[in-house]
Each structure stands twice: as C-alpha cells, then as structure tokens.
Amino acid sequence: MPMSIGQGSGDFRETSGRVQIFHEGIRNSLGILSADAFTQSNPPVITTTGNVSTTLAGISKKGVLGASIAFTRYDAGNGYHGGAVKIATAYDAKLRPLGIFINDSLGNPYENTPGIASGRGPYLCGRGSVGLSIWETQDQIADTTALTYAAGNLLYASVNGFVTNNIADAYETGASTTPTIIGIVKIAPDANNSLMVIDLRI
Questions:
Q1: What one-character DSSP code corresponds to residue 41?
Q2: pTM of the prediction?
Q3: What CA–CA distance (Å, rounded) separates 169 from 28?
Q4: What number of helices (H) and strands (E) belong to the chain?
Q5: Residue 186 has pLDDT above 90, yes or no
Q6: How distant is the alpha carbon of residue 154 from its chain centre?
Q7: Other CB atoms within 10 A of residue 200 CB
Q8: Could you report the per-residue pLDDT of 119-129, keeping only the tens digit for each?
Q9: Sequence-ordered strand ranges (E) for 69-152
Q10: What is the CB neighbour count within 10 angstroms for residue 7?
C-alpha cells in the first residue's frame, strides 16, 4: 500500500502555506520580522506568469507564508528576518537562509494572529523532518522547464524564498555565493502525497 502524506481535510494549501512537523528540530522565535514580511507578494521576486509555481495556485495572501524560507534581513535591522528580496538589481550575499517559516505572518481567518501581535515569525531550524505544502515547481531563472523531485534531492532556498532542487535558481547562486543546503527530500510529492517531506539540514 503506498504511503500517503498530507491528504485529507487538513490540507489547506489553497489559501496558505502549511508545515506539518513530523520530527521537531528547533522552533526559533528569536528576532523580529522585517516590515515587508507582512506585505510581500507571493511570489515576491520573480513574478512572470510562466515561472509561478503551481503550489502557489489559489494563494493571494500577502506576507511570508508557512513553508517558505526565513532569511536574515540586515537591511531591516540587526536581528531581523523575513522573506526573499531583490535589492536594486542584485541579490544580496548578506541575506542567508535561516530555516522554514512555521506560520503565515498574517495568520488565518478566525484564528489568533501572533505574528501581527508580536512582530515575531518563528521558523524551524536545527534539523528535524517536516512536510511542506509549497515548493518551486518551475525553473525560475532560465524559465525553460518544470521541476520534478525525487527522494534524495538536495534542496536550496530559491530566489523567491521557496525550496527548490535546481541549484541554478538558488537565491545565493544569484549572489555568487555557495548555496546553503536547506534539506534533503525524504518523500517526493506525487499522486499519493500532497506534501513534500524533507529532512532539514539547516
């Protein structure tokens, strides 16, 4: 019988980003969210229609999403973190991936909104295994191919701040820096699995 991860009524990919924690690393709430963590579009950097990943279909929410990458954001101040951003015409080598955001910064309807109330956006780091509802499904830089994933793929933070297995699309590649490995695919998304399950390496 095939394994099934992330199916059923708990899957609300159509409105938000979701992280399912299977084995927990560190829930890091140290630091403050940058102002644009509440206002960024999704995707925030490369928005050409053909490049937009299918996992973002139906998501119109602003701000960083659960399952997206938290980056250092020295441009907002010491100790700040937020989403991916393009500064002027170049990617900034000082923006480094920290982990995976657990929640959307704006929260969900009829729920508490801790990000807005506290200015903090917790992210997962320090290993662990998680399922993600958002990942890149398209080549972002060259805009030539759809991406496919398999168990064992290395994952990086894309220019838009979502996981990708295409190293050419890694945010830090744009900054001419060796990209940080975010994790390794444990269970690839397929007809039986709506989430991408990864072992974190950050």
A1: -
A2: 0.90
A3: 26
A4: 2, 12
A5: yes
A6: 15
A7: 21
A8: 899 999 999 99
A9: 69-72, 80-82, 97-101, 123-125, 129-132
A10: 11
